[in-house]
Design a protein that fits this description.
alpha/beta; Rossmann fold; L-2-Hydroxyisocaproate Dehydrogenase, Chain A, domain 2; 3 domains; 3-stranded antiparallel β-sheet; 11 helices; 14 strands; disordered C terminus
């Protein structure tokens, strides 16, 4: 048995294969690549292994169509699911990918109860809820990859705009994965110099807008979702966990009152050195998440309503999926999540009141 950490990547498509290749090239872990398509994970694993002789890492990637080889995994990255096509939003995938993510989560957790799950499948926030509900794992062990990818896109645009090296750009993109994302301009620097001193507001606004639509821009060009940057971003999360890098990274985490948000997955600074948990508001006060600009981008009535829809679908599928085979588990899942649904409905009303107050104040 290898003494190295075991990393499972479920989904041997473009994103999953890229993640597996990047993790393998780090040369600290054994990687298992899983996919239902015969020959696909085995072929890609073999290709990645043979590349090790060129790049100088040990070949330790295994391809499988089942989950037996995943037993005892330390981290499981879920990329399985349908990618976006032109004209599709991430939310359009919810009914398709919910069943896939639920089935995958059930299989991997059955064999790796101590694993940390990193969700990549879209729509990310909803799929994180599904993985957490099906797995029964604590919130610290089910996180989503979005903010690292969005931050990478923002950083690339900043480097091009300023003519600087992307290595000297320090940025952070928080919030939802889509129109709800918040590039924190006030905390963005290039070589230690605030971005607002290097670029006019109009140019910064265009970079922010391009970042928010970054995924859609690539879908329009490729006619499918991006994979190099998403795969590498997921691999960075794996590195941080397995190598105990003590990084503070923008990830999608389950909030229970942090930043005034309760019962939702949302993009916030997360760190492995506090148990892969959410970094408190006092620790990142410089991000100004408590000012009105944050709340103007926090989940308000439309996104909360969407979250409520996700929960209705989740509760229905929990009932159907588990009631037949495991009735007690199915009943428990429904009872646990009904209060969250009620809370979301209450927050829709609060959001409406808050928006009305904001308009009156303005």
């Amino acid at each position: 048995m290898s003494a190295r950490p075991k990393i499972t990547v479920v989904g041997a498509g473009n994103v999953g294969a890229t993640c597996a290749q990047v993790v393998a090239s780090r040369d600290y872990a054994d990687v298992v690549l899983v996919d239902i398509k015969e020959g696909l994970p085995q072929g890609k694993a073999l290709d990645i292994d043979q590349m090790g002789a060129v790049l100088g890492y040990e070949p330790n990637v295994t391809g499988s169509n089942g989950y037996e080889a995943t037993a005892g995994s330390d981290v499981v990255v879920i990329t399985a699911g349908r990618p976006r096509s032109p004209g599709m939003s991430r939310d359009d995938l919810v009914t398709i990918n919910e069943a896939i993510v639920a089935a995958v989560t059930k299989e991997v957790v059955r064999r790796s109860r101590k694993a940390i799950i990193v969700v990549v499948s879209n729509p990310l926030d909803a799929m994180c809820h599904v993985a957490k509900a099906v797995s029964g794992l604590p919130k610290e062990r089910v996180v989503g990859m979005a903010g690292i990818l969005d931050t990478a896109r923002f950083s690339a645009f900043i480097a091009w705009e300023t003519g600087a090296s992307v290595k000297d750009v320090t940025a952070m993109v928080l919030g939802g994965h889509g129109d709800q994302m918040v590039p924190v301009v006030s905390a963005t620097t290039v070589g230690g110099v605030p971005l607002e001193q290097l670029a006019p507001r109009g140019r910064i606004a265009k970079m922010v807008e391009r970042t928010r639509k970054g995924g859609g821009e690539i879908v329009d060009l490729l006619k499918t979702s991006a994979w190099y940057a998403p795969g590498a971003a997921a691999a960075q999360m794996v590195d941080s966990i397995c190598l105990d890098e003590k990084r503070v990274l923008p990830c999608t985490a389950f909030l229970e009152g942090e930043y005034g948000v309760d019962g939702l997955y949302f993009g916030v600074p997360v760190s492995s050195f506090i148990g892969w948990g959410v970094v408190g508001g006092a620790a990142i006060g410089f991000f100004q998440w408590c000012d009105r600009r944050f709340w103007s981008n926090c989940p308000t009535r439309p996104s909360l309503s969407a979250a409520g829809l996700y929960y209705l679908i989740l509760i229905f599928n929990l009932a159907v999926t588990f009631w037949i085979d495991e009735p007690l588990l199915g009943m428990a899942g429904v009872l646990i999540h009904l209060p969250v649904l009620l809370m979301l409905l209450v927050r829709v009303g609060l959001a409406r009141s808050w928006e009305s107050g904001e308009r009156a104040a303005d």
